[in-house]
Amino acid sequence: MVYDVIVLGGGPAGYHGATLAGKKGLQTLLVEAKELGGVCLHSGCIPSKTWLQSAKIFAHAQNGAAYGIKAEGLSFDQRRVTARKNKVVRILNAGVKTKLQNANVQVVTAKGAILGNDSTGFQVKAGSEYYTGKNLLLATGSVPVIPPIPGLAAGLEAGTVKTNAEIFDLDHIPASLVVIGGGVIGLEMAAYFSAVGCKVTVIEMQDRIGGEIDREIAGILHDNYRKKGVDFKLNTQVTAVDGPRVRFTSPAGEGEVEAEVVLLSVGRQPLLSGFGLENLQPQMDHGRLVVDRSGRTSVPGLYAAGDVIGRSMLAHTAYREAEVCIDRILGGTEEVNYEAIPAVIYTDPEVASVGETAESAARKGLDVQTVKVSMRYSGRYVAEHEGGDGICKLIVAHGDRRLLGVHLITEYASELIYGASLMIDRKLTIEEIGKVVFPHPTISEIIKEAALQYGSI
Ligand code: NAI
Description:
seven-stranded mixed β-sheet, 3 domains, 33% helix, Enolase-like, domain 1, FAD/NAD(P)-binding domain, globular, binds 1,4-dihydronicotinamide adenine dinucleotide, 26% strand
């Protein structure tokens, strides 16, 4: 039998693409070596959100006095937190299996290898079986970047250094944690461990945390966590890891910090080797697969979606990339609008953003204006906050007054940012946004407030 589509990899890109293909009536085979769900479900998005929810409840109980709540005898049980995380993962894993079953997707649990392609299609070996597919969707994901820092490999081997793949198995809270890399994973884990009593140090080689997020918001987040006791070492390079010691060079000179656990979170890279991709020889550029906005590679019938592309390593990007691949296989013309993909850092407060920042707009030579409002313009924010330094920023094209970017630091930011994505995707002007009716009182109203303030500039 020749399948219409063979999907390699069962993470968000793979299972979503396969489900969609199956629902559309395509004969679909999904090959996954491990459990369905990928990094997102097993060692990324879902475990971290489950842990962070426990940390949030703990922090609320600890900090309730200003709200009239006094809690005594509080304790934090990491074993139970992790057991609950495992339960949540099991529930969602079962959900993925059911979706695939309902879409008539055949799932093979084995490591897949691409053998080549000919006029009949792509040949894939999985376990001891051979399969042929007219189309092949690569959804093999990504692996952590392991920089060549002396002692790092030995630390990973010994288990004193962990990546996101190992950290979620911790059944106790270490006394101290050094996080190498102040990006998304580093910040979410710093948020968790610092909330539950661990001494956290974040070492970041850039002059800011949070990568490409709005610089001012990165500063606010930095201040929030500095006040909560996290020690940030910016402009700092790790030079060696020696057992529990992490040596570094900072603007102040050489130094070292000791930690029970070291978390390495300096980025991820596409997984492109070890499964026979070289047998198809797709076009590559500086080690990256060349893929258009519809997931097409240079090999007809070979598509890619998710982290393996390396363009926007987010589960929701993976979903959309998989959708456009299946649309193309069915003869459609859809493309991913990368300009309207939201990104979230699930710290407390959360950071959410979509579109251009003032910095990225300047790099592109775009003529933009920025409006910034304090979150304290939101009645709900004030009602729920003693203090609070959240902000909302809109980036607007100077000429046609279209919205190009939205950046927030506040609770619920993750839940409201999709609205901003839609506004950007649909090319709404600031006047059109000013006329949208938002529920009151909500945090989301801040976008209307900012639009109205912009209108009066
Ligand atoms: P990242 O790219 O977000 O951050 C890596 C950070 O490490 C950067 O700030 C970089 O400057 C720094 N860095 C690199 N080399 C370093 C070195 N030798 N010493 C010190 N600092 C160094 O990567 P991260 O946090 O590992 O996350 C990986 C991927 O997972 C990202 O693509 C991210 O988008 C995704 N992810 C998304 C989440 C979300 O959407 N909430 C949650 C977790 C991960």
